Amino acid sequence: MFLRTLTLSAALLLGAPLAEAATVKHKTSQKKPRDAAPRPLGERADMRQFAAELAAREGLDELTLRRQLAAAKILPAVQRLIMPAPPGAAKDWGAYRARFVEPLRLQAGLAFWAQHEAALARAEERFGVPASVIMGILGVETFYGRIMGGFSALDALVTLSFEFPKGRSDRSAFFRQQLVELLLLARHEGLDPAGFKASYAGAMGYGQFMPGSWNRYALDFDGDGQADLIGSPVDAIGSVANFLAEHGWQRGQASDYTLLMPADTAARAQLLAPDIRPTFSAAQLMALGAELSDAAKLHEGPLAVIELQMGDKAAAVHRLGTQNFYALTRYNQSSYYAFAVLELGRELQAMRLIGTPQPPAAPSSGASGPVVDGR
Ligand SMILES: [Ca+2]
């Protein structure tokens, strides 16, 4: 999520699953590279300098820092996993969606929703973010806490800070910032930085927050006095909603609409050029030949035209994204990711409605607005 400055986020958290989905049929002919064993970083000049600067700036104990960093391990698996997906695989929204909107994840989601119904409703009420959207994020990120990453956050971030692999654009500066954030988080919580579990990129807990996002957006939503995104699903629920609200989520606004693209090639290119950034008014879209649903025509505020490719066999599909859609892409800068979140959440909500003999308790105003896209 939340790699604010990064196109990297899509590569980290979307690219991998996409690549997996797209290349699955070739898997048998490809050998998985075998990783070398982890090895301690040890004392090094660049690390000593990092520790000295950090200690001076943040008031951390320099010797402790040096000891913690020197004991951290360089993980070859992390270096392999951070690499971009092999080129050539066409993006396939159908395959991507099917990875997340599938029976086992839906079953886990229904159980999680039932168990945490009160916290989800409370988060929706307080932040204006629909429960279905929070559920979509937690489902896509970690299968409701089942897959939170098996790496040490410290080892992963030390690896990507000090031995970022060659062969892709160097993001070590970003990961050093996140390493600093992890060390500050550990101090704040009074915990050993080596004790945090994470993905290969250092994302942690039910919502896969990077350490910087944890420090900025994590909430104690269960009231035990600590914001614990790894141990407390309720804290994660509140923190995901807080993250989206802080990134511009607007209560009651739809997240997306359908549209028919114009036939004209130049007009299509113009509409797609801003990608995920909401840019066009409904009137501008229609002037360029797009056909909008009635709800989209009435939308106030800018809209993004999103293309979701369907592999190399079917035509791409197109949607309109609002500012709320854009807020979702602050979690992960990918339209595929954002639509998987929305569709998983919608499917869960529909299943809950079907499975409930009586109507659910009256939602607060606009509570169901963003979930139903107004098609
Ligand atoms: Ca808590």
What report would you give on this structure?
The chain has 17 helices and 8 strands. It has 375 residues and is of the alpha+beta class. β7 and β8 form a beta hairpin. α5 (93-100) packs across α17, α9 (153-162) packs antiparallel against α10 (172-189) and α10 crosses α11 (211-217). The model is unreliable at 2-29 and 362-375 (pLDDT under 50). Bound molecules: calcium ion. Calcium ion binds next to loops. Calcium ion (CA) binds at residues 220, 222, 224, 226-228, 232, 235.
List keywords for this structure.
disordered N terminus, two-stranded antiparallel sheet, binds calcium ion, Helicase, Ruva Protein, domain 3, 375 residues, 8% strand, alpha+beta
Q: What is the strand arrangement across the widest sheet?
A: 6-5-8-7
State the CATH superfamily name of one domain.
Answer: Bacterial muramidase
Give the biggest sheet: 4 strands, antiparallel
Provide the list of bound ligands, each named once.
Answer: calcium ion
Overall average pLDDT: 88
Low-confidence stretches: 2-29, 362-375
DSSP strand (E) fraction?
Answer: 5-15%
The CATH architecture of one domain? Orthogonal Bundle
Protein topology:
Elements: H1 8-23, E1 39-40, H2 45-58, H3 62-71, E2 73-74, H4 76-81, H5 93-100, H6 103-115, H7 117-127, H8 131-142, E3 151-152, H9 153-162, H10 172-189, E4 197-198, H11 211-217, H12 233-246, E5 256-260, H13 265-272, H14 282-287, E6 291-292, H15 294-297, E7 304-310, E8 314-321, H16 323-328, H17 335-355
Antiparallel strand pairs: 1-2, 3-4, 5-6, 5-8, 7-8
